[in-house]
């Protein structure tokens, strides 16, 4: 997959997830897209939430992997 295709798919998935994070007072920021991986930063209430790692890997990562089968790693920075 070309880098720009990967980037647009990643952004589409993040925009789909973002409202759920914002409902809890948080947000997600894309730090870097390095196909097949993604670096993100949780912001707001999500930044210091005890469930942040659960949200990242069972929510965000799971949706990315489901939507983009070639997706690699989700890296929190």
Can I get a quick summary?
This protein has 77 residues and is an alpha+beta fold.
Helices and strands in order:
Layout: H1 3-23, E1 26-34, E2 37-44, H2 52-67, E3 74-76
Parallel strand pairs: 2-3
Antiparallel strand pairs: 1-2
Helix pairs in contact: 1-2
User: What string gives the helices and strands in order?
Assistant: HEEHE
Report the CATH superfamily.
Answer: Fe-S cluster assembly (FSCA)
Name the structural class.
alpha+beta
Query: What is the rounded distance between the termini?
Result: 25 Å
Structure characterization notes:
- This protein has helices at 3-23, 52-67, and strands spanning 26-34, 37-44, 74-76.
- With 77 residues, it is α+β, with helices and mostly antiparallel strands.
- It has one domain (3-76): GMP Synthetase, Chain A, domain 3.
- Strands 1-2-3 form a 3-stranded mixed sheet, with helices on one face.
- The radius of gyration is 12 Å and the shape is globular.
- The protein starts with a helix and ends with a strand.
Which key phrases capture this entry?
single chain; 77 residues; three-stranded mixed sheet; GMP Synthetase, Chain A, domain 3; 2 helices; alpha+beta
């Amino acid at each position: 997959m070309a880098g720009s295709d990967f980037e647009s798919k990643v952004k589409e998935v993040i925009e789909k997830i973002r409202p759920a994070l914002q409902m809890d007072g948080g947000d997600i920021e894309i730090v870097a897209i390095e196909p097949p991986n993604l670096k993100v930063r949780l912001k707001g209430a999500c930044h210091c939430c005890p469930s942040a790692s659960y949200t990242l890997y069972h929510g965000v990562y799971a949706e990315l992997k489901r939507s983009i089968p070639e997706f690699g790693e989700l890296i929190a920075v």
